[in-house]
Amino acid sequence: MKILVHAEKTLDSLFAIPWLAEFFSLLGLARDDFVVFDRPTRLSSLIVAGTSFEENHFSHRAFARFCNALGDRYGEDVSDDRPVYLSRAGFNSQMRTIRGEHDVVSHLERAGFAIISPETLSLRQQLRLFSSHRPTTGFVGSAFHNDIFCASPVGIALTCDGLVSSNFALMDRVNDARIRYVTTPGIILEKFVLGQPALYRLEDPRRVASHLIDLVTARAWEMQKENHPDRVVYGDAFTLLTAHQTWLQIDRQTGIVVHGSGQGERIVKVTVRLGEQGWAALTTSVGDCLSVERDNAQGVIVYLRYTQRADGRIALFSDETSRFLCAQPDGKLPCDRAEPKEWEFFWLVRNAVTHSTADL
């Protein structure tokens, strides 16, 4: 049976992409196994396969098993047992540039890290970037998607702004990954223009390198968050109304918690339930994976602490950083405020959608 590719590209253009053609070859697929229709075509039968991974939405363990098998069978080792640092210093990224990373690389190399530039590796080598016995570190980016080709990988990922795509959380969960996401100390956003790479600067590269070395020495990826028996939430679900008269919501394509009108095909309101021990559980009625900006908090359920005013409004803050969630006028909802003021408080509006305690 042929594999139907529904795309504007031709098969010649697809197979002209070296890494894509090689991926197909690893799966035992050649050009003749595919077909692209260039005109309306009536089919007598068509099998539409379910997907094991959908960006920013859901992931199944079958996806991890499939990718693990590719890594085990075709991956080529790129390093010894030393910690690995994935360098972006020489990469012409279309997403972000980090000034000062060259100095970080120098410090880490002297400390015994293996420095690897992923863009210089073959596809088979990229399948073995991560390991379950030695840590892989670096600034989080596309290279960290390669951890799905290793079962139970370990590592440290530095974030630029405390925002990590929920794709990483989805893959980590089904792959039993132990990747610790941490906010980079002393990183400054110098320039951001929509459609252009963001420009960041490290105030003190030596401090960043020392921080990463300390995390690796402490085996920070093993420091899993303790189970919190006090994270008991119950009762009705509420939606949250901001000081701007907007709702906490997500665009299901990204899963990032923001605030807005609550309207749109991909828009889903975020709901919250509260517990007696000061925990608030954020989720959606359809169970999307959520990301909270500047908090590294991700998951189908995001737990935050809360405090409540006499008028009933609540403020939400991180248990790790004690920073508060803030509804900025631009629609963003970062967790980065040192104290709660008007934009950090939310009205609880009783939601018609309720869940059982077992859901959380």
Question: In percent, how helical is the residue content?
Answer: 10-25%
What percentage of the residues does DSSP assign to strands (E)? Answer: 25-35%
> How many E strands?
25
The number of helices is 7
Report the CATH topology name of the largest domain.
Rossmann fold
> Which residue ranges are poorly predicted, with pLDDT under 50 across at least 5 consecutive positions?
352-360
Shape: globular
Radius of gyration: 22 Å
- Main β-sheet, spatial strand arrangement: 13-17-18-21-22-25
Through-space gap between termini: 43 Å
Largest sheet: 6 strands, antiparallel, barrel
Structural class by SSE content: alpha/beta
Count of discrete domains: 3
- Architecture of the largest domain, CATH level 2? 3-Layer(aba) Sandwich
Question: Roughly what is the average pLDDT, rounded to an integer?
Answer: 90
Class of the largest domain in CATH?
A: Alpha Beta
Give the topology.
Blueprint: E1 3-4, H1 11-15, H2 18-26, E2 34-35, E3 53-54, E4 58-59, H3 61-74, E5 84-86, E6 96-99, H4 101-110, E7 114-116, H5 123-126, E8 136-139, E9 154-159, H6 166-175, E10 178-183, E11 187-191, E12 198-202, H7 205-217, E13 238-241, E14 247-251, E15 257-260, E16 267-269, E17 271-274, E18 279-283, E19 290-292, E20 297-299, E21 302-308, E22 314-317, E23 324-325, E24 335-337, E25 345-350
Parallel strand pairs: 1-2, 5-7, 5-8, 6-12, 8-9, 9-10
Antiparallel strand pairs: 3-4, 11-12, 13-17, 13-25, 14-15, 14-16, 17-18, 18-21, 19-20, 21-22, 22-25, 23-24
Helix pairs in contact: 4-7
